[in-house]
């Protein structure tokens, strides 16, 4: 039986049950443990995104990253809408990344 010890989506137990596979789960009750597991999951999904072979795979991994980001947002007592409002405000104040600028250096004062 392979060992994973990683955070999984809520419907994974149902999927495993439907396949008739035996498994063991544990539930994280402490926010500190959950936050750590989400950060690990973010890194896992980021690595999968970086190693995606095509646009379809990349978009699937970006969707997974977004799901982890939403869970992290909830952990910080925020909603997806509030998070997006913050994103929009930052976009309005500082812009996005459409111009593809790389800041090389800035003069010291």
Estimated helix fraction: 55-70%
SSE succession? HHHH
Secondary structure: number of strands: 0
Question: What's the total helix number?
Answer: 4
Strand content: under 5%
What is the SS-derived class?
A: mainly alpha
Output mean pLDDT: 96
Q: Which word captures the global form?
A: elongated
Rounded radius of gyration (Å): 18 Å
Instruction: List unreliable stretches of 5+ residues.
Output: none
The major sheet is characterized as: none
Distance between the termini: 61 Å
Organism: Gracilibacillus pellucidus
Protein name: Nucleoside triphosphate pyrophosphohydrolase
Notes on the protein architecture:
With 109 residues, this protein is an all-alpha fold. It has a domain at 12-79. It is built from four helices and no strands. α2 (31-50) packs antiparallel against α3 (55-75). The mean pLDDT is 96. It comes from Gracilibacillus pellucidus. This is Nucleoside triphosphate pyrophosphohydrolase.
């Amino acid at each position: 039986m392979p060992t994973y010890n990683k955070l999984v989506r809520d419907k994974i137990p149902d999927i495993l049950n439907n396949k008739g596979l035996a498994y063991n789960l544990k539930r994280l009750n402490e926010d500190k443990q959950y936050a750590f597991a989400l950060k690990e999951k973010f890194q896992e999904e980021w690595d999968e995104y970086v190693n995606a072979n095509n646009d379809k795979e990349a978009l699937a991994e970006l969707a997974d990253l977004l799901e982890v980001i939403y869970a992290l947002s909830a952990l910080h007592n925020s909603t997806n809408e509030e998070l997006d409002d913050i994103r929009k405000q930052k976009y309005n104040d500082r812009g996005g990344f459409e111009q593809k600028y790389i800041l090389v250096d800035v003069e010291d004062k």
